[in-house]
Amino acid sequence: MPLIDARGRIFGRLNVIDAALVAFVLLLLPIGFTAARLFRLRTPVIDRVEPAEQPVGRDRRISMHGHDFRPFLRAFVAPTGKPFSLIDRAREGGEGVVSVETPEDMEVVLPDIAEGAYDLYLYDESREVAHRTGAFALKTPPVVEQMLEAKVRFVVSPNLVNVIKAGDSDVTEPAPIKLADPPQRPAVLTAVRVLGRGPAMFEMMQVPHRGRWFGRTQQDGMVIDASVTIPAHQTRAGIWEYADLPVRAGDPLFFQTTRYSISGIIDEVNIPAHTGAPPAVPKAGT
Questions:
Q1: Letter string b/e over residues 30-67, b meaning 16 or more CB atoms within 10 A of that residue's CB
Q2: If 0-12 CB within 10 Å is exposed, 13-18 middle and 19+ buried, where does residue 286 land?
Q3: In Å, what is the CA distance from 41 to each residue of 37, 71, 131, 199, 233?
Q4: pLDDT tens digits, residue range 35-48?
Q5: Is the model's pTM score more than 0.90?
Q6: In this structure, are strands 217-234 and 240-242 parallel, antiparallel, or unpaired?
Q7: Are 161 and 194 in contact (CB under 8 A)?
Q8: What's the pLDDT tens digit per position in 193-244?
Q9: Yes or no: is domain 45-139 CATH 2.60.40.10?
């Protein structure tokens, strides 16, 4: 039997046009399969998240490392062990700000979230494409006490000059914070030097402190320069504080014992170099 008969059929069964269509379809199958594999969006995979732990704070960032990251992905965080809902996340503000650096690296600015361990979710529009349990944790760092040496100028009543002595301890109630061991100790006068009588005016911070207002004050009394050892803790902003007030040159210091109560202006604060802060704060006005 000839390959193509007189009626244009191949082996007497298919005509040439039908055979060409079948061959064309068979040719398209591998082309379509190859194109689908080449152009389809691969599922992102999160291999690791850095840092795994960092202090609580605003604008904290994490870096994700993996593969097949792409633009327009959305990142959400949820406390580990808590059921996740995209609707709840949108309402509660659990979405971070995503920036894709490469298909293997992605950075996320975290929302303002509290201390704890968190899961991480990646979404493409409303479809979840990746999830990592226990991706990272935020922790409140321990508040460490540091003994600072300060020079303070007090203006006091002449009747108090002979009462104020080196070694006196402050009984001002400390701030209600959780400190590392040992617990917060009182400030102590380590040296007292009487300069003499005369009027003195100080510009003091306008802030309420335990029912008192610190403001501009003028007293005609005895001026005392004192050295004070102050157990302070450092805030997240890097400011040293004692009993709810900053310990800086130009700031007020309130000092009271069971026998007297005085307030003055901090002239200078010596900060140990190992704290990472400058070893000394210049005197106010210099």
A1: eeeeeeeeeeeeeebbbeebeeeebebeeebebebebe
A2: exposed
A3: 9, 12, 17, 79, 52
A4: 555 556 688 999 99
A5: no
A6: antiparallel
A7: yes
A8: 998 776 554 444 444 444 444 455 555 678 899 999 999 988 777 889 888 7
A9: yes
